[in-house]
Write a structure and sequence with these properties.
By secondary structure, the chain is mainly beta. It has two domains: 184 residues, Immunoglobulin-like (Sandwich), CATH 2.60.40.680; 77 residues, Sandwich (Immunoglobulin-like), CATH 2.60.40. The protein is built from one helix and 18 strands. Strands 1, 3, 5, 7, 8, 10 and 11 form a seven-stranded mixed sheet that branches. A four-stranded antiparallel sheet has the order 2-4-9-6, with no helix packed on it. The chain is globular and about 55 Å long.
Length: 267
């Protein structure tokens, strides 16, 4: 009888690995309530990969933004990458209100190898996006329709996984991140009253031009929320050529401590 037990155990391990390739059976995006779970629950031995993850939030004009207008639809892209040439990538993402951690918005037009799944966290049902199968380029996308009313800050939590596709639970590695989107109805906090500030070109290779902002101080943050650079602005282009490729947030603070934050992509 003992050989048959070994055979059943082997079959169970194979089924677990196959099933996780087309989705994650538990919440691992790093959102509140996910804290006891991570990708390591199934991929429990870190490999040599060093993964990174970033999310881009684009309006109807395909311009990166960090604000939403109630009822509008946005394109959301998650890019997972890693060192040492992993075979493929997976991801998971969820959008929650910043105050109550409730599901918010509606996912539509899911991109290639992206699906939605319902998971229960702290007794509440949440809709997560996850890979339907591993993707070699690590780019996952979908459209997200904002709620019809102002829900305050909305936080997107996401996790990425770099995998070797060896059929076992070893050698892979994961990373998490988050991005906060603020309601556009908070325009009264802009540096110039009733005039929406903007930066261009976006994406950019070297310089950012700033319009509708007074002089003051700026701070640039990377996707991890770490400060990348800072300086003073006064009606002249800001040199960002020293930054590596990726998505950044730039926060402007004027002499009266009023501030606004914009998102840009560095090529």
């Amino acid at each position: 009888m003992r050989p048959s037990y070994y055979l059943l155990f082997f079959i169970a391990i194979v089924l677990i690995n196959v099933s996780s390739s087309d989705g994650v059976p538990q919440p691992v995006a790093g959102a509140p309530g996910d804290s006891t779970q991570s990708c390591k629950a199934c991929h429990n031995s870190s490999g040599t990969y060093v993964p990174s993850i970033e999310m881009t939030f684009l309006n109807k004009d395909s311009v990166a933004t960090s604000q939403y207008t109630p009822g509008e639809t946005y394109q959301v892209k998650v890019k997972v990458s890693a060192t040492n040439n992993p075979k493929s990538f997976g991801f998971q993402m969820v959008g929650l209100t910043g105050t109550s951690n409730n599901n918010v918005g509606t996912w539509t037009k899911l991109g290639d190898k992206v699906k939605s799944e319902k998971l229960t966290v702290s007794g509440k049902s949440r809709t997560y996006l996850v890979q339907s199968s591993p993707k070699t380029d690590g780019v996952f996308s979908a459209e997200w329709k904002a709620p019809d009313t102002d829900e305050g800050d909305i936080i997107f939590y996401f996790a990425g996984l770099a995998v070797n596709l060896n059929g076992r639970d070893s050698g892979d590695n994961n990373v998490t991140g988050k991005k906060t989107i603020t309601p556009a109805t908070s325009a009264s906090q802009d540096l110039v009253s009733n005039i929406m500030p903007f930066i261009f070109p976006n994406p950019t290779v070297q310089y950012l031009n700033v319009k509708n902002l007074n002089h003051g101080h700026f701070i640039v943050y990377n996707y991890k929320g770490e400060m990348a650079c800072e300086g003073q602005f006064e009606n002249e282009p800001i040199d960002v050529s020293m930054l590596t490729q990726g998505t950044y947030e730039i926060k402007f603070i004027d002499d009266e401590s009023r501030n606004t934050t914009l998102t840009f992509i560095k090529l």
